[in-house]
Amino acid sequence: MAKSTSLQRLLTNTTIKSFEDREKVLDEAKREAFNSRLGTYLALAYAYQWWLMSKDDRLYMEQKFKSAEIKVSDLETTNFLVPTIKLIFDLNEPTYYSRVTEYALVLQYVHRKMDEETYEDAAACPSLAVEIIKKGKGIRKCAEAQRQFNNPKDENEPPQTDLEAFLQKVCTNRYNGKESDGAVNIPAPKSSAGLVLMVGRPDQNNLIDIVDV
Q: Are 198 and 167 in contact (CB under 8 A)?
């Protein structure tokens, strides 16, 4: 709690500049990205401003991504949020997938909130983006809220306990069969991300004890 309070105080007392030139915005975003936890908030705010200033100029954005050797999939060309995060935070390696996704969700969250009545007459500046993230209780909470907004719970989706029982049965059978695949394709119900990830371990009876799903 003390760390969170300290960060909130820093954000409140930090002067957040706004630039009219998108190249300066991009430079500031990259500079803040490697500063500190506070810098991450500011970098996301500048990332949002740069994306907002540039999203209608596809050629410009594509050139920026190409120069940084960032590949853009057909799906990502719809909004360029993922490559924007990769560019600003230098997270182009596959190992950074989770963080890239989280930060891109935060930008989606900020953009969605900008359309709400509370902010509709306000300028979409970096200080406002930081304020939205603060009110959303931080980066992780904003990302989770946007993930749930993107993937509303399906009433027909099996309860978590049913999913765990299914996974336990399948993985126990595979374990007893001495199959050691790191990733297994099984017809399990899909999570909101399209994947089911299970952490488990064999118990004394050779049943897979699920640690987390």
A: yes
Q: Which two tokens stand for residue 44?
A: 């996301």
SS3 of the chain: the string is CHHHHHHHHHHHHCCCCCCCCHHHHHHHHHHHHCCCHHHHHHHHHHHHHHHHHHCCCHHHHHHHHHHCCCCCCCCHHHCCHHHHHHHHHCCCCHHHHHHHHHHHHHHHHHHHHHCCCCCCCCCCCHHHHHHHHHHCCCHHHHHHHHHHHHCCCCCCCCCHHHHHHHHHHHHHHHHHCCCCCCCCCCCCCCCCCCCCCCEEEECCCCCEEEEEC
Could you give the 3-state DSSP secondary structure of residue 210? strand
Where do we find the tokens 């596959």? 94
Residue 135: count of CB within 10 angstroms of its CB: 12
Q: Which run of H or E residues covers position 209?
A: strand 208-212
Q: What is the mean pLDDT of residues 125-141?
A: 89
Which of 28-32, 72-76, 168-172 is most confident?
A: 28-32
pLDDT at 167 over 70: no
Whether this prediction's pTM lies above 0.70 is answered by no
Instruction: State pLDDT tens for residues 16-70.
Output: 677 788 999 999 999 999 877 778 999 999 999 999 999 999 999 999 999 999 9
Residue type, 199: V
